Structure prediction request, 358 residues.
Amino acid sequence: MLAEGKRANIPANANDLTRTSSTCTITSSRALQQRLFSLLQRKQQPALEHLAQIHAQILINGFSRTKNFLLAPLLSFYSYSSAHSVFKDIQSPSTILWNQMIRAHARSQSPANSIQFFNQMLLTDARPDAYTYSFLLAACTSSLSLRAGQQVHSKVLTNGYYSSNVFLMSKLVNFYAAAVGGDCDALAYARKVFDDMSERNVVSWNSMLAGYMRRRNLDGARRIFDEMPERNVVSWTTMISGYAKNGKCKQALNLFGQMRKAGVGLDRVVLLAALTACAELGDLRMGMWIHSYIRETFDGSSQRVFVSLNNALIHMYASCGMIDEAYEVFRWMPERSAVSWTSLIAAFAKAGLCTCSS
Prediction:
């Protein structure tokens, strides 16, 4: 019995009861959607068992028909083949889901399949957007398909994205800068797109820099580097590695010194390039500084020293005639490769320390 003076919150008639039940159902459905979405937004890859449970809830509650915002992150967690199986059962996938699958194809071992998938998309009501074309360009870059990339470029022009979308334009610059072969000067196309950009970012500058360096045009690369309004570790590494690979070791070490003064973090690639230059020039002082930097940076941290860095240190010390130091690096290596053994044997042979028994 209710206390006197208080009224129960009871619906007046059947229609009110139905409306109340419907409101509760909608509220519960939204709460579940939000819960599933938050689980799929976590940076860490869910365990396969948990992913299957989330997928089951999406299916059981009918969210797979209309809730594409749940399906997009779900597809991103699945493997390529599993995502493809899930996608086939989706009715009228949205642009974001097509994009997710095109990107999955672009990252697979058969990136050229992205074009076929894009052609299927054009037969539906979903309309391509800037992300669609950026994923397609990534696929063309990976598959080195110049002709397909040029067709995507044409689509970008037709749909009015040209020069207005910095992200997409940077993808175009990178595609042409990385392209090889064909009947056109791909780097000239890259430069044309780059010059047409109303706004440039460090990614587009780095793409042009890599394009010149890839073609061993060191002067052109240096001009781009000097003109850059902003540089990051990729900019410095591309230039220094390019100099070292092309025998310009003095320039490589000079630029390496400037990079240190600029306070830019040194990554594994630039350290390898600098050690190569030290070995070529016999610059023991710089080589020892790099060795000290590697010890201070990696020892006692969660990062491990890559085998390739240790191999480069062995080669550097051997080239400078410091055989004992080369051996010490080898002795303390937690893991070794065939190159490690070859480098040390070559160092001993060069120093006349190898003996042959009959």
Remarks:
- Residues 1-24 have pLDDT under 50 and may be disordered.
- Residues 53-199 form a domain with the Serine Threonine Protein Phosphatase 5, Tetratricopeptide repeat fold (CATH 1.25.40).
